[in-house]
Amino acid sequence: MSAYAQGAEQDSLQQKRIEKFESWKWRISPYAWVPAIRGRVTTPSVFPSQLPEPPPPFFDFKLLVKDLRSHLKFLSVISAEYRSDRFLFAGRFDALVIESQPVFILESLLDQTLVDFALYSADLFGGYRFLTDEKVHLDGLVGLRMLHLNVGVHTLVFGNEIGATQKKTYWDPVLGARLKYLPHYRWELIFYADITPIPLESNFSFQGVSVITYHFNPHFFLAPGYRFVGHRKTDDEVTYFDGNIRGFYLRIGFQF
Questions:
Q1: Would you give the distance in Å from CA 193 to the centre of its chain?
Q2: CA distance linking residue 126 with residue 94, whole number of Å
Q3: Which residues does residue 147 pair with via DSSP β-bridges, in sequence order?
């Protein structure tokens, strides 16, 4: 057999294996995500006035992954996707609750900040696969995101407590794109990004995800990745939350 014929046979076998691993309709993926959080909130006005007022005080905070180990109260993240030919539907739900996390400011033992942080997020997407190549897939997605944030920052200064608490639920349209590269029938490289093209309640929201997936068989896979979520919401000089949530995660997926 010639080298050309052997190469063609190997390519044909590789394509059959890719089709076997890509023949799923449903994909369900619970995953663990313990991110770092950086943000800013401001104190709402207690007695609103029409007169000019100085801007409200703001509070910056930062929670690292190592800070969350003993104060993570609840974490739940799961995603699901249904695919039919070139059309797809996907959803994701996140819940992250952190209580009474102490953070020292300016490395001073006199000033201590307590941060309570709760995030609940749900995404629902519909999409279309514009490009279906042997090794490259490109999807466009449009959908709706619900995001509920409850952020409390309280600083102790010589025994006196000052702080800010902001709680709000947002509903925003989302426009996204996903690029998938298949170097081997067991491997996937996925890059995903979305934004709020027409902000309704948020000033700006965006997300970026990169994933490396390994398929043990046509029905089970493992996918480590990195996720970055940015959110900005200000209203009349009051910052409800301006910051980002980012970190590595690990997905355990099932497809059938």
A1: 10
A2: 18
A3: 121, 170
Name beta bridge partners: 217: 220
Question: Beta strand pairing status for 111-132 and 136-157?
Answer: antiparallel
Radius of gyration of the chain (CA): 23
The Cα–Cα gap between 41 and 241 comes to 5
Identity of the amino acid at 73: K
Q: Which two tokens stand for residue 186?
A: 């067991």
Identify whether the C-beta of residue 190 lies closer than 8 Å to the C-beta of residue 209.
yes
Distance of CA 174 to the CA centre of its chain: 13
Q: Tokens at residue 4, please?
A: 């050309």
Strands 187-195 and 204-217: antiparallel
Cα–Cα distances in Å, from 243 out to 208, 230, 239?
14, 6, 10
pLDDT one-digit tens code per residue, 78-131: 999 999 889 999 999 999 888 765 544 444 444 566 778 888 999 999 999 999
- pLDDT tens digits for 208-218? 999 999 999 99
Burial class of residue 43 (count of CB atoms within 10 Å of its CB; 0-12, 13-18, 19+): middle
Give the chain's length. 256
